[in-house]
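Open question from group meeting: does this chain pack into something compact, or does most of it stay loose? Before anyone orders reagents, we agreed to write out a predicted structure and look at it together. Recording both the input and the output here so the notebook holds the full record.
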Amino acid sequence: AFCLVVVLGFVLVPDPSTFPVTFFVHGPAGPQDTVLKNSGEVMVDLGGDRRQAAIGEQGQAYFPAISANFRGQDVLAWVNSDKFESADANRKHKLDRQAIYLSVQRKAGRLYGLVESEDSKCLTGIQVQVGGLTVPVNHGSGRFDFSIPGDYMHDELVLDATGPGCSPQHLNVGPDSNEIRITLHRANAGSGKE
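Structure tokens returned:
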């Protein structure tokens, strides 16, 4: 019995030279807001050693063996993702527990393009809106280049373009995609909006 206890004691005691940490990534609504599932990764700077772990189904990134000399230390940790970024990328996190929560927010996106028309009157008062935001348009060239704040970002947005006396155009657009080209046509008298 004594030998069994000694053998099991050695087998069951965890390695004291390392410890595990799980980072849970969540959106602005709190820990239950799992916005990244099987997408992106968590990066951690451990002195001169930068480590990364993929984010899993539950929004978790698991680091199984962090050197014991980092226990209780403050380290930089952030999220690397196409659509999301750390809400506070410069914040340090104390490695004093097994679960640490990282908050993320949507990255800003870009829409750019050109509004054109064969009728110059359509271009005199161009209005372009996306998700309730007014997009600034150069009235001389018809060009626009607009950064959409992360709070307004979606995978697909509705763009509305109007000009005086012209039929409005409604387009579904994807942020960070190719140039958007919008053609405004003179509205037929008495036809109303399309």
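Observations to bring back to the group:
Confidence is low (pLDDT under 50) at residues 1-12, 189-194.
The helical segments are 2-12.
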